[in-house]
Amino acid sequence: MTDLGTVQDTVRNNVQAPALQTPSQTVGPFYGYALPYERGPQLVPGHHPHAIRFHGTVTDGAGQPILDALLEVWQADETGTLVQKLGSCDRDGFTFTGFGRAPTSIAGEYTFTTVKPGSVAGRAPYVLVTVFARGVTHHLFTRAYFPEDSALHASDPVLTTVPADRRGTLISIAEPAIAGTPSYRFDIRLQGENETVFLDFDA
Questions:
Q1: Which of 10, 41, 76, 170 sits between 20 and 30 A of 85, alpha carbons compared?
Q2: 167: buried, middle or exposed (CB in 10 Å: 19+, 13-18, 0-12)?
Q3: Among 146, 151, 136, 201, which Cα is nearest to 174's?
Q4: Residue-wise pLDDT tens for the chain (203 aa)?
């Protein structure tokens, strides 16, 4: 027969210290495995009469390129129409769906072939950009506006809420055309000096 006092002493001696919560960590990223798809960055083919190159580099807080990020873009077509057609993941070469997905290269660079969006409801044209990257526990939203639409920037309901000294991070840079194709550069800085403005949308 076991003595009750002996059992209580054994239990007391084996009680462990309170467990401490370990730091949270992100799992992955696994973006390069299944999410990129054939012609995902090509919202229109390169020979489209209104094709533009929309590209840039994604960098971290230290200014180093992020080589495993994934970007998605959503936009209107050149007439300002928000297209709602299927086919984003199965490009047929002519249907514009307004959606594209591109991974970054080893140099942190991404490129889309698309069209410059037209104005929607009289507002400044823009491309909505979503960023997925290592260390980012929730995807980030931002917008890329176009420099030639500065007259509309002053009345844009989103851009005007951004402090004047930060708006430049949302304006793409027009570059010399490549083989007749207009080119716009939109670099994304996740942290630090000149950090890109990210948007918070209410659910």
A1: 170
A2: middle
A3: 146
A4: 556 565 556 545 655 667 777 766 555 666 666 788 899 999 999 999 999 999 999 999 999 999 989 999 999 999 999 987 888 888 888 889 999 999 999 999 999 999 999 999 999 999 999 999 887 878 999 999 999 999 999 999 999 999 999 999 999 999 999 989 999 999 999 999 999 999 987 54
Show the beta-strand stretches assigned E in 28-68.
51-59
Q: Which CATH number covers residue 130?
A: 2.60.130.10
| DSSP 8-state assignment for residue 22 | P
pTM of the model: 0.83
Q: Does some domain include residue 158?
A: yes
Residue 153 lies in a domain: yes
Has residue 10 been placed in a domain? no
Give me the domain span that covers residue 174: 25-189
Tokens of 148: 């030639």
Instruction: Name the domain count of the chain.
Output: 1
Q: Which residues contact 123 (CB under 8 A, 6 or more apart)?
A: 152, 155, 156, 157
130, amino acid identity: T
Decide if 46 is inside a domain.
yes
- The token duo for 4 is 């009750």
Region of residue 121 (phi > 0: left; psi between -120 and 50: alpha; otherwise: beta): left
